[in-house]
Amino acid sequence: MGTRDDSDEAYVVGLCDQVLGEVALTQHKFDWLLGDPGANGRQVKLPVDAYWPGHQLVVEYRELQHDQPTPHFDKPDKLTVSGVHRGEQRTLYNARRDTEIPAHGLRLVVIRPADLDADGRGRLRRNQKADLAALRTILARDSDEDRVTDAFRTWLLAQGWTPVDPTDRWTDLEAVRGDERLICEAKGRTSEKGIDADIACGQLLRRMTRQEPQIRYALIVPSSSAKAAARVPAHVRELLRIDLYEVTDDNTVSQLP
Questions:
Q1: Of the chain's two ends, which shows fewer C-beta atoms within 10 Å, N or C?
Q2: Across residues 245-249, what is the average pLDDT?
Q3: What CATH code would you report for 144-255?
Q4: pTM for this predicted structure
Q5: How many C-alpha atoms does 137 have within 13 Å on its Cβ side?
């Protein structure tokens, strides 16, 4: 019998690590994600397959037994603390994860064998090239602003920054590194490049409520908006401690002069 380390779940999580640029906390447990109480009234914490704190993302890899009756796993003749057999309890607890994880401000992505290169029994063929391409699409956010924000978050992690809860709830992203703090405003592709860049600068100005020199501000834009964002002269941006970053279509991040 294989171990968790060589399981399809571990393989998928490892590929997600590559896409996200962060190593997951596997089988992570949250204080608020609980199973049903047992005979002694205690509730166990339900694990999630993988959690990336920097991305505030949870991934659940659900193999065929999560969606199809499987007597070997379900043990239909044995009841759980929920009063149902393991197959029904698994469905119940998956529904609880589906509800509670987004309710606590985290993004949940559910991946199934059919989403990747799998055989008819749901076993992955481990075609890394095809699976990585599929996962990049699956993990992508809905809007281009989300894409830009996620790409910059991944870049920050690689540079030793730690994303934190923003001081201002309207801030797109905030991160710390030592005594440094970076407050970020991101924009996606738009037909009004100049207007959106001006709005973003105004949004950063409103967040300049503290004077500590170790606090800097970042304006992050896609390549299509880089020229418009750079209309604010570099010496003015430096006085205001605003750094300008470009995210290309392939999610490469670079700081502009």
A1: N
A2: 95
A3: 3.40.1350.10
A4: 0.66
A5: 7
- Return the C-alpha torsion angle 134, 50, 177, 167, nearest 10: 100
Taking the C-alpha atoms of residue 222 and residue 190, their distance in angstroms, rounded to an integer, is 9
Both tokens of 100, joined, read 């509670």
Confidence of residue 1 (pLDDT cuts 50, 70, 90): very low
Q: What is the residue-wise DSSP string for 174-204? A: EEEETTEEEEEEE----S-HHHHHHHHHHHH
Whether the CB-CB separation of 20 and 155 falls below 8 Å is answered with: no
Find the mean pLDDT for residues 218-244: 95
The model's confidence at residue 64, banded by pLDDT at 50, 70 and 90, is confident
What 76-79 contacts at long range (C-beta under 8 Å, 24+ apart), as own/partner pairs, is none
One fold for both 4-139 and 144-255?
Answer: no
Check the CA dihedral 82-85-86-89 and report its sign.
negative
Q: Which two tokens stand for residue 136?
A: 């990049």
Residues in CB range of 209: below 8 A, 6 or more apart: none
Architecture of the domain spanning 4-139: 3-Layer(aba) Sandwich (3.40)
Res 152: pLDDT: 94
Identity of the amino acid at 245 = Y
pLDDT at 72: 47
